[in-house]
Amino acid sequence: MPNGGELSIVSYVNNLDIIIEISDNGVGMNKEQINRFGEPYYSSKEKGTGLGSMVAVKTIQTMNGTLHITSALNKGTTISITLPVYQEGYSAK
């Protein structure tokens, strides 16, 4: 959010999943940016490398989680991360 704005982080449990929603009211993302999110060396920032988002996406996938992005240009973006709840003695695989 180059000109400032609001960032919201909310988490909750839904059945056997933990949901983390990260929302802002920044510049938003177009379809190409959403589709390429997490791709190595892709960044919409002038000095960005895209490696931070790649590591985040790979970490979520390694934890058997999912990531969903909704965004509107000039309105903001919401990233929803869903991770399975760890239960002793239970394997999701």
Q: Any overview of this molecule?
A:
- With 93 residues, the protein is α+β, with helices and mostly antiparallel strands.
- It has one domain (7-84): 2-Layer Sandwich (Heat Shock Protein 90), CATH 3.30.565.
- It has helices spanning 31-36, 51-62, and strands spanning 7-14, 17-24, 66-72, 76-84.
- A four-stranded antiparallel sheet has the order 1-2-4-3, with helices on one face.
Keywords:
single chain; 93 residues; alpha+beta; Heat Shock Protein 90; four-stranded antiparallel β-sheet; 4 strands; globular
**What are the low-pLDDT stretches, counting only 5+ consecutive residues below 50?**
none
What fold name goes in the CATH topology slot?
Heat Shock Protein 90
The major β-sheet equals: 4 strands, antiparallel
How many beta strands in the DSSP annotation?
Answer: 4
What is the level-2 CATH architecture name? 2-Layer Sandwich
Oligomer: single chain
What is the CATH superfamily label? Histidine kinase-like ATPase, C-terminal domain
Order of helices and strands: EEHHEE
The CATH class: Alpha Beta
The largest beta-sheet arranges its strands as 1-2-4-3
How does the helix and strand content classify structurally?
A: alpha+beta
Shape field: globular
